[in-house]
Design brief:
It contains seven helices and no strands. It is mostly helical.
Length: about 160
């Protein structure tokens, strides 16, 4: 929507920058990503983003408070645990997945710092890195997970 309509925007401030919001989002996200078998994805994404943020701060001579503030964004935490960790949209091979996650973080950070896209930089990184998935899947073939079909519920006591 942001790319198609000039009036659309993503409000990263809606999540706030307090520690409890980030901890709540990370805790809920960790429960979900663990059950999907993708708990490493958000941590790798956040580590790559932190390395870029702290490296940039060091390069520019900024105090550590600047990247710490950038990392405390609830939107960044929510993105890491709820958007990039979707197992159906990422490479199945662990090494290819790591390359893709770091590329997503790098592209998003580049959009935020070079292009001043502050409202949706991680999302743009995800959009820009999405075409890498089929390329990485071809370079690093891996078996796809067979998701179990849902078990039909049997409602007792309901007349047909």
């Amino acid at each position: 929507m942001v790319a198609l309509f000039p009036g659309a925007w993503v409000s990263t401030g809606q999540w706030g920058v307090s520690a409890w919001v980030a901890l709540f989002a990370a805790g809920a996200g960790l429960a979900i990503t663990r059950s999907a078998g993708r708990a490493a994805v958000p941590f790798l994404f956040l580590a790559a983003w932190a390395a870029l943020a702290f490296g940039r701060a060091w390069w520019l001579g900024d105090p550590p408070a600047v990247p710490l503030h950038q990392m405390s964004s609830g939107a960044l935490i929510a993105f890491a645990f709820f958007m990039i960790s979707d197992p159906m949209t990422q490479p199945w091979h662990a090494g290819a997945r790591a390359v893709w996650v770091v590329a997503t973080a790098g592209l998003g950070f580049w959009m935020q710092t070079a292009w001043i896209v502050t409202t949706a930089a991680p999302i743009w990184g995800l959009v820009l890195s999405a075409p890498l998935v089929p390329i990485l899947e071809r370079l690093f073939p891996a078996p796809r997970k067979a998701w179990a079909p849902p078990v039909p519920s049997t409602a007792k006591g309901i007349a047909a």
